[in-house]
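We were asked to recover a plausible sequence for a given structure. The inputs and outputs are reproduced exactly as logged, with field labels preserved.

PROBLEM: sequence recovery
POSITIONS: 369
GIVEN STRUCTURE:
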């Protein structure tokens, strides 16, 4: 009997840990022995290092990407009666944060090639109540930051970047998280920079915003037991911070490895009748996902599954068709997002994926396309 080939996963957080264990394990033990577990030197160092990596002026660590979005919206003053424009093709949390802030998400369509917010659809959706825009850098590639920032400037809208999938990506020489008033990151265990649990961070330009974010994440408090406003508990702990610092030092290397996996897929899938992910050519794509489009999506996904290969539907339902929003959006038609939702298939891509595994994935696609 021959052994079944190993399964191929979408992400490999345990493999990342094994690779960096000699640095991560003692660092975690040091934090445990220190007795300082929340809001300490590790978190502050992480904030400085991520601000440096993204080119943003300031960074405030939080306990998740969702809270990063929510608190950035609060820091902008977004609240009840306001509308915030978001792309319909993204992870649910982008719009969920708008609802947490008491505002209404307005769903715009996306660009058919990059899946990112379409600047024309953004413009069409601006109304008298629009206060802010969340541009998502989906799958690891920046949205059209020049055109989107122009629209926001012209109409005095706050620009928030959802950079949860795009740490290290750039556009015209600027980094994800450095374009808007706020940049929101997630360090969920499958993200390009990942913690061993939940973690997130907001970058910002203005010192006043940094101070508000620090206050919001810590019960509205600037001084012990004095509360200027009602805030939240959204602090990052020191164990996650120290893990993230070790992994941040490896991030560029890991993103390069993802880029090599993407190049291998491109080479092997180039002649097949499927659409490969488009690069805008304005800067680095960090391949959080490698997402193809095909009318044979479900058949290919089934065959991959039988061969022990994971794949994912990011995203099978655009946000205006999610049960939580569908009632409010019954009349809304967003043709590009809807078409993409029926055709996208995300293939395994991570820093430890080897060439033999990529070849196995491609062989299954070739046989089923
Ligand atoms: C992961 C993700 C989030 C949410 O981050 P969490 O850390 O899981 O709360 C938000 N937006 C996008 C686009 C994401 O991919």
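RECOVERED SEQUENCE:
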């Amino acid at each position: 009997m021959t052994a079944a080939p190993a399964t191929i996963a979408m992400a490999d957080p345990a493999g990342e840990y094994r690779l960096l264990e000699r640095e991560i394990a003692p660092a975690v033990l040091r934090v445990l022995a220190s007795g300082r577990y929340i809001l300490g030197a590790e978190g502050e160092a992480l904030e400085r290092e991520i601000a440096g990596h993204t080119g943003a002026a300031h960074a405030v660590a939080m306990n998740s990407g969702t809270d990063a979005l929510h608190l950035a919206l609060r820091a902008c003053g977004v609240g009840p009666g306001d509308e915030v424009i978001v792309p319909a093709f993204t992870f649910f949390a982008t719009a969920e944060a708008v609802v947490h802030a008491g505002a209404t998400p307005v769903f715009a369509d996306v660009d058919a090639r990059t899946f990112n917010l379409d600047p024309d659809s953004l413009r069409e959706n601006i109304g008298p109540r629009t206060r802010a825009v969340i541009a998502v850098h989906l799958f690891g590639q920046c949205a059209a930051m020049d055109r989107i920032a122009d629209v926001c400037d012209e109409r005095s809208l706050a620009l928030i970047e959802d950079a949860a999938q795009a740490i290290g990506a750039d556009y015209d020489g600027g980094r994800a998280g450095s374009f808007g008033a706020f940049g929101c990151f997630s360090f969920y265990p499958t993200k390009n920079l990942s913690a061993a649990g939940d973690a997130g961070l907001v970058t910002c330009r203005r010192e006043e915003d940094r101070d508000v974010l620090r206050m919001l994440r810590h019960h509205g408090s600037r001084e012990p037991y004095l509360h200027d406003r009602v805030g939240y508990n959204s602090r990052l702990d020191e164990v996650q911070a120290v893990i993230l610092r070790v992994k941040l030092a490896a991030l560029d290397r890991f993103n390069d490895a993802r880029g090599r996996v993407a190049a291998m897929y491109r080479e092997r899938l180039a002649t097949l009748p499927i659409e490969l992910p488009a690069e805008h050519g304005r800067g680095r794509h960090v391949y959080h996902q490698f997402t193809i489009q095909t009318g044979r999506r479900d058949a290919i996904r089934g065959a991959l599954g039988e061969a022990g290969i994971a794949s994912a539907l990011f995203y099978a339902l655009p946000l205006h068709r999610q049960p939580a929003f569908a009632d409010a959006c019954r009349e809304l038609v967003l043709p590009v997002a809807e078409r993409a939702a029926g055709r996208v298939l995300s293939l395994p891509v991570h820093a430890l994926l080897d060439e033999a595994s990529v070849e196995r994935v491609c062989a299954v696609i070739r046989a089923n396309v």
